[in-house]
Each structure stands twice: as C-alpha cells, then as structure tokens.
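Journal club side-thread
Mid-discussion, someone asked how the predicted structure for our own chain would compare to the paper's figures. Pasting it here so we can look after the session.
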Amino acid sequence: MIEEATKIGNGAQFAALCYRVRKKKVQILMITSRRTKRWIIPKGWPMDDKTPAEAAAQEAWEEAGVKGSVQQTAEGLFTYTKEGENGAPNLPCMTWVFPLRVASLKSDFPERRQRRRKWMSRKKAAASVNEPELAALIKGFTPKD
C-alpha cells in the first residue's frame, strides 16, 4: 500500500513517532510546525534514495535533531490537509508513521532555528495535535522493543 501511494506521489508522506521510555513511561517528542507553530511530529515527502522508514528518520533529524533507531514497519497512518502556500491549492495527505526510538537529541540540526521541540506524555501529545487519527495513534502507541 505504501509503495502504491508513493508511486502516485501526490500527498504521500512519511513521519517519525519519536519516543523514549523514562521511569517505565513512554514520552513522545513533539515539534512545532514552521508556519503555524502548532504541535506536530516530524514528517515529509518520499525520498528517491530512501525507504519510507529511512525518509521518516531523515525528517526526524532535519526537523528535530533526532538520532535513533527507526522501525521498518509503519505503526499506522493518518490523513490531513496540507494548506497551500502563496495561493497554491490545499493538498490532502496520507502520512505513514514509523516509530523511532530516540538515542540522542542534537542541539545543532538543520531546522533548529525554525522549530521548538518538547517531550510529552502520550496523553498530552495526543491532546496537542489537530488530527484525530494521529491523536489515536499516539495515545495507543506501545513500543515493541
């Protein structure tokens, strides 16, 4: 299914659900979007030289400074409408979410001046996003490792 959507090209995205476990509690790393500053998870478009999971991990690095191990199988997916910029039409997006266990957070990463990042509980992270499918995915997430 991912391969078909990627070939279609329009609207297929890959996201990283960046997490850690502290005192037996799962925490999710949330970042702000560049334009609206709302809480999101790192995501982006397919990359020719990367698998979907690798593309998600690359976005996590660029947008949040995350290094870690990404699961090769998607945890789930969510849909949303990406607002067009400069008069461009809105684009419906289908986004596959790949869990990424965070090993380290770097302070020097490509989008460090454009975003904030914050660790949240699953409950708080789920409540902070606008997309109901993403909220359900975050709330029900249990690491497999």
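Post-session note: Residues 15 and 97 are 5 Å apart (CA to CA).
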